[in-house]
Design goal:
Number of helices: 13
Low-confidence stretches: none
Distance between the termini: 37 Å
Order of helices and strands: EHEHHHEEEEHHEHHHEEEHHEHEEEHEE
CATH superfamily: Alkaline Phosphatase, subunit A
Length: 509
């Protein structure tokens, strides 16, 4: 039996045509969902990429793995799904990246691995090594194809003709200056296809595609699939100044161009056109991959998991990128197709229960019949795949964290009057309410029944004081229940060491 674990990057949950999105077309993922299970209330554990992917690969909340931002090392003492399957006799492969920074302890100061966070996840064999955050093999391929290579290869993602783009007053959205068969999405998918076709036994691979991550520029024809003037207006207050009144952290973001959406709506609409086009491109390439599995008679031998690391604000609340506490940055897709006959009864179902990125690793290991490490904060989704029901005591809310520290620059700390370790947020969100706790700033509380757009902070509203206390206590209980276990399940004494794993059953709140 095989596992195909696919991640795109920065994909909002609603961007599937199966869910009725007015623009995005994802026929191949729609078909996968109709043959598997779509988890509609699935949430990332963190943002940006590195902390989120650390949770995805280790099954751990950020409060435990402590990879808090891009470039933060992942402690080498932690297990991950690749190490687990390798110990079981598999040789897992990687096409793309995992945004991993190596544990620096014990390394020479001149070790080149200290100068980037493009190391592959420990335990995984990479077939497309990254240099300066770009696939070195793709750069070589582009050079051989005659494309000019920028001094920083990342510039390939923005390479267009020298003309005014639509967002700058031009007549149309400009495409990337490359054929779609040369774009990295096609290249990476093709390498993965070639590798799978060469296997003569069970295999496990992770295809990690960069897109629709910015820069938001798509190759022809994906750049022109949607009319920019038809794009919807972002969900936000009338002005950034009005939006910024909600909280000091939001005020900081909205006064820094790195996070602020453009004032000109044409620029945001251009980004939407390219974002949706890049999503369509990913879907089309996954269709090629799925077709190969069917042609090689491996479709019904392969567990397929498709998800992403986090979402994208895309102008909502006047923000761009992935950050803060709004749902747009954390609500993400998850589609799982279990090929076994035991899953036939659930094909095409949609799960409404809250699921999280930390559930992916336990699901893979459970499907292979392997025990999950004690470190895991998530739980296997196999019961939902096999009998359509979540286990008794399943979580009734989603939990995520965001850390806005910058070890190289203390500007945000000075602006907000915080210490390095006070730059953190914890969020608890269910169907009715959302509580946002800051380490040293005022909390936020949203009544999602009356205010699904999260515009009105009710934390200081006397009518909600009881609810705020209730959710603060729920969050505290969750964090205590999921604190780092270390060796707490082992006891020494007469008879030697005894270990008893805690029950995976989560107590109902």
């Amino acid at each position: 039996m095989n596992i195909l674990f696919i991640t795109a990057d920065q994909w909002r949950a609603e961007c599937l045509s199966l869910l009725g999105h007015p623009f995005v077309q994802t026929p191949n993922l729609d078909a996968l969902a109709r043959d598997g299970v779509l988890f509609e209330n699935h949430y990332a554990q963190a943002a940006p990429c590195a902390p989120s992917r650390s949770s995805l690969h280790t099954g751990m909340y950020m409060q435990n793995h402590r990879c808090v931002t891009n470039g933060a090392p992942l402690d080498s003492r932690f297990d991950n799904w690749a190490l687990c399957v390798r110990a079981a006799g598999y040789d897992p492969s990687l096409f793309g990246y995992t945004d991993s920074a190596i544990d620096p302890r014990g390394l020479d100061d001149n070790d080149p691995r200290l100068r980037h966070y493009s190391e592959p996840l420990p335990g995984i064999g990479t077939y497309t090594p990254m240099v300066d955050e770009v696939s070195a093999d793709w750069v070589d391929y582009m050079r051989e194809r005659g494309y000019p290579i920028p001094e920083r290869p990342w510039g390939l993602y923005s390479m267009r003709e020298d003309a005014a783009d639509w967002g700058q007053g031009g007549a149309q959205v400009l495409p990337l200056a490359m054929d779609r068969e040369d774009h990295e999405t096609h290249f990476m998918t093709e390498r993965c296809i070639e590798w799978i076709e060469a296997q003569d036994g069970p295999w496990i691979t992770h295809l990690s595609l960069l897109r629709p991550h910015p820069p938001f520029h798509a190759p022809d024809p994906y750049h022109a699939m949607y009319e920019p003037g038809d794009m919807p207006l972002p969900q936000r207050c009338k002005t950034p100044a009005e939006e910024a009144l909600q909280h000091p952290l939001l005020d900081y973001f909205l006064n820094h161009s790195r996070y602020r959406a453009p004032d000109d709506i044409r620029e945001t609409q251009q980004d939407m056109v390219n974002y949706f086009g890049l999503i369509h491109e990913v879907d089309e390439n996954l269709g090629r991959l799925f077709a190969m599995l069917k042609a090689c008679d491996q479709w019904d031998e392969t567990l397929i998991i498709v998800t992403t690391d986090h979402g994208e604000q895309m102008g909502d609340h006047w923000l761009m990128s992935k950050l803060g506490y709004f749902d747009q940055s954390y609500h993400i897709p998850l589609i799982v197709r279990d090929p076994s006959a035991a899953a036939n009864a659930t094909r095409g179902t949609r799960v409404q229960a809250f699921t999280e990125s930390v559930d992916v690793m336990p699901t893979m290991l459970d499907w292979l019949g392997l025990d999950q490490p004690s470190q895991c904060d998530g739980f296997s989704l196999l019961p939902a795949l096999r009998n359509g029901e979540m286990p008794s005591g399943w979580r009734d809310a989603a939990f995520w964290e965001y850390d806005f520290r910058n070890v190289r620059d203390d500007a945000i700390e000075r602006h907000l009057g915080l210490t390095l370790h006070q730059c953190g947020i914890s969020v608890l969100r269910d169907h009715d309410y959302k509580y946002v706790h800051f380490a040293a700033l005022p909390p936020l509380f949203f009544d999602l029944r009356e205010d699904p757009g999260e515009y009105v902070n009710r934390a200081d509203d006397p009518r909600y004081h009881g609810r705020v206390l209730e959710y603060a206590q729920k969050l505290l209980s969750l964090k205590m229940n999921h604190t780092d276990r270390g060796l707490s399940e082992t006891m020494l004494g007469e008879g030697g060491a005894v270990t008893r794993r805690a029950s995976p059953r989560r107590l109902a709140s």
